[in-house]
Design goal:
The complex is a heterodimer of chains A (257) and B (342).
Chain A (H helix, E strand, L loop, with lengths): L2 H15 L2 H13 L4 H21 L5 H24 L7 E6 L7 H12 L3 E4 L6 H11 L3 E5 L8 H11 L7 E5 L5 H7 L3 E2 L3 H14 L10 H31 L1
Parallel strand pairs in A: 1-2, 1-3, 3-4, 4-5
Chain B lengths: L5 H10 L17 H7 L5 H4 L1 H13 L5 E2 L7 H5 L35 H4 L2 H17 L4 E7 L1 H9 L1 H10 L1 H11 L1 H13 L3 E5 L9 H15 L7 E4 L8 H4 L6 E3 L6 H8 L4 E6 L1 H7 L2 H14 L3 E4 L9 H12 L5
Parallel strand pairs in B: 1-2, 2-3, 3-4, 4-5, 5-6, 6-7
Classes of the chains: A alpha/beta (257), B alpha/beta (342).
């Protein structure tokens, strides 16, 4: 195995277990060896994070494991981001993310942000306890095609509808796609309040964001890395289908009892 | 069987004794905007003044018919007293901690100077205790009066910041244990004050939920603490933990709680099976879809399902959205009344 291949394997394995120090060391070594930042990102880091997401979806990983992996990935991104910009990697689109007014939970949102950035989006994060006015001002400033709202409490979920009504009142509701998420949120609730999509976790958020911006005419893939990304996505989708079948079987078993 | 009072019914259910019908309970807040208008008690006063707090809490029984009342609607009293910033002035939302003093790893994990007196004299902590005193005066032994405390895990979320706390469960577990050990005296202190004021039982919220952590984290970090603390509370204690929790009832039932208040994600029949008769169950009517978005027929369906499964105390799964209708909440009570036992 060449040193470059060892580095990529090391990036994958150490991101998976959240060994940030080792991820940073390997990233720096890869850069020093002249490895392509795109290759390290799409050939090791993103697939690792996608595996993390898969393990989370099937219940092997929980939030702490996601956080340590995400922080490891962040360590690499701090090093690679300037190089990616230099190499001309264009962001797919801007996604605005926030936790709604009255709610200060942000883990899920922060994990989504990392996955979205890792997937090539520019993320504008308004933070927590975000008022409708703040959201509207930020939309006017940043013109995001996608707005993601998070609520962790059943008492704050109604803010999704309040925010979308404010967008409609300003005449911009049809200019943004709204995706919602958070522990108590469901697809049914998202449909009921008129959101454009619902994602149960960070991995699904990335898929949803790509779908929504594609619907708006954005190109969700950089042509240069298309083949690598397609292969990585297909591999992940195969795993996701297995995970989906696993979850469906579990649900069916629960319902029948 | 003679008709029981709300308190008799609730206590009998907790003890596993015969009841005239299933109790319908307010466990972690059933207050809503419509109720606020009916009893003329609104935020922020209902969160910050004992009389307004007691008036709104009383509505759970006097207007909606629940067998219990619980005046501590929000989760922020302890956090405020321990140094978190909380906006208590909002008229439409529950107050929540917005700063986390222990988030900075350079900050020493310790309680504020003067604990416990400084804690018990805090404006919002003493408000809650006084509201319980007023409710005891109002209802005597007719209605079950519940207090509520945040356990050391949930308090750690507030003091530490959820993300950093969960991160440290893997990266720095010693700091997590230090946080839990430092904070464990807080719910004990608050619970005893509430019981002395008239609370008949305590709801203990500790959110080691399946939405966030694996069940072995509860077992390894929190179960030993609960086994140490719960026997020291001189009243029955009801654990509240949201989210998917079926996989950890096996641990909850060993912790010393009298009951576990659980969420709609957990099928009630499966939950009953997991208790092995060692802990009673309260719950588990869905909030965001059933109580908030649907009507009385759907509420009745879920309440009946919980009753049929053997859930001992019928309640919403968590603090109801403030837009929930009084009509829907009353349907929980009506369903219980339509299921006489003995």
């Amino acid at each position: 195995m060449s040193r470059e291949e060892e580095i990529k394997k090391g990036l994958y394995d150490n991101t998976l277990v959240g060994n940030r120090k080792e991820v940073e060391t390997l990233t720096n070594e890869g850069v020093a060896l002249g490895m392509s930042p795109m290759d390290m990102l799409f050939g090791a880091l993103i697939p690792s994070l996608q595996e993390v997401g898969r393990r989370f979806e099937v219940g092997d990983y929980f939030v702490p494991e996601m956080l340590v992996s995400a922080k490891a990935m962040q360590g690499a991104m701090v090093i690679l981001r300037p190089l990616l910009v230099q190499s001309g990697a264009k962001p797919i689109a801007t996604v605005m993310m926030f936790t709604v007014k009255g709610d200060v939970h942000d883990i899920g949102k922060n994990l989504c942000n990392i996955m979205l950035e890792g997937a090539g989006f520019t993320v504008v994060d308004l933070g927590v306890n975000t008022s409708t006015d703040k959201m509207m001002a930020a939309i006017k400033q940043h013109n995001p095609p996608v707005v993601g709202m998070s609520a962790f409490l059943t008492t704050t979920m109604p803010m999704f509808k309040v925010n979308m009504e404010a967008m409609a009142k300003e005449g911009i509701r049809d200019k943004v796609k709204v995706m919602v998420g958070g522990a108590p949120v469901t697809q049914e609730y998202a449909n009921k309040v008129g959101a454009d999509g619902y994602a149960p976790d960070a991995n699904a958020t990335v898929r949803l964001a790509k779908k929504l911006v594609a619907e708006m005419g954005y190109d969700v893939m950089d042509t240069e890395i298309k083949e690598e990304v397609v292969a990585a996505v297909q591999a992940v989708e195969a795993l996701m289908n297995k995970a989906g079948a696993h979850e469906t079987a579990q649900d069916a078993s629960t319902e029948s009892n | 069987m003679e008709r029981m009072t709300g308190k008799q019914r609730f206590l009998a259910a907790l003890r596993g004794e015969p009841v005239d019908r299933p109790p319908a309970a307010s466990i972690v807040s059933v207050i809503n905007y419509e109720l606020m208008d009916i009893v003329d008690s609104h935020f922020p006063a209902a969160n910050t003044e004992p009389e307004a707090m007691a008036q709104l809490a009383a509505g759970a029984h006097e207007v909606m018919g629940f067998d219990s009342v619980m005046p501590i609607f929000s989760i922020a009293q302890e956090a405020t007293a321990l140094g978190c910033e909380v906006d208590w002035s909002d008229t439409t939302m529950m107050p929540t901690p917005t700063t986390h003093p222990w988030e900075d790893r350079e900050v020493k994990i310790q309680l504020p100077d003067g604990f416990p007196d400084s804690f018990l004299n805090d404006k919002y902590v003493s408000c809650a205790v006084e509201a319980i005193r007023l409710l005891k005066k109002r209802f005597g032994d007719e209605v079950m009066i519940l207090g509520k405390v945040m356990g050391p895990w949930t308090l750690s979320y507030h003091l530490y910041n959820v993300q950093e706390f969960l991160y440290d469960t893997i990266i720095d577990p010693d700091r997590v244990r230090e946080s839990l050990q430092t904070l464990k005296i807080v719910p004990l202190t608050f619970a005893k004050a509430q019981i002395e004021a008239g609370a008949d039982a305590i709801v203990w919220a500790d959110h080691a939920t399946g939405d966030l952590v694996r069940n072995t984290m509860y077992r390894d970090f929190l179960l030993p603490l609960h086994q140490e603390l719960i026997p020291q509370v001189p009243a029955p204690v009801i654990l509240h933990c949201c989210g998917p929790t079926l996989d950890r009832i096996q641990f909850f039932r060993e912790a010393g709680f009298k009951a576990f208040h659980f969420e709609s994600q957990v099928p009630p029949d499966k939950a009953i099976e997991e208790t092995q008769g060692k802990i009673k169950l309260a719950g588990n009517i869905n909030n965001p879809v059933t109580l908030f978005s649907r009507g009385p027929a759907e509420v009745r369906f879920e309440a009946q399902r919980a009753i049929d499964a053997g859930v001992h105390i019928i309640a919403p799964e968590c603090a109801v959205p403030l837009q929930t209708s009084v009509e829907n909440l009353k349907e929980i009570v009506a369903t219980c009344e339509d299921n006489p036992k003995n």
